[in-house]
Model the fold of this input.
Amino acid sequence: MTAGTEPKTAEELNKDTVAAFMEVFSTGDVPAILSYLDDSATWWVAGNLEGISGTKNKQEFGEMLSGLSALTVSGAIRLTPKAWTAEGARVAVETESYSELRNGRVYNNLYHFVFEVRDGKILSIKEFLDTEHTRAIFLAP
Done:
């Protein structure tokens, strides 16, 4: 710690964890992405998108992510945080995604994520998104 600087708050440390997670998520490296999640972590996605919505455990999330990444030209969906709120163990972040898909479509969605972080590990993620955009880009014929 440099003289005159205060140690980071728990909220700042949790925000740093989520920021690092989003940076790694944007690379498409599934094992590295999963390394940020606690073994008991869950990922919940809003809506009724077949194969995407609902609650997944860490392994199921990794499988879904691998499947989605295979559909992209770069092997990844880039996440760009736009606005943050952190309180206690919760970090909320408004986010924009971007990816070009092998089917010629462009995935560019807006999200509101709510993360629960403890001791540098993500325990849960809730993902709110434009499900109709996701359906049109990933699932429509």
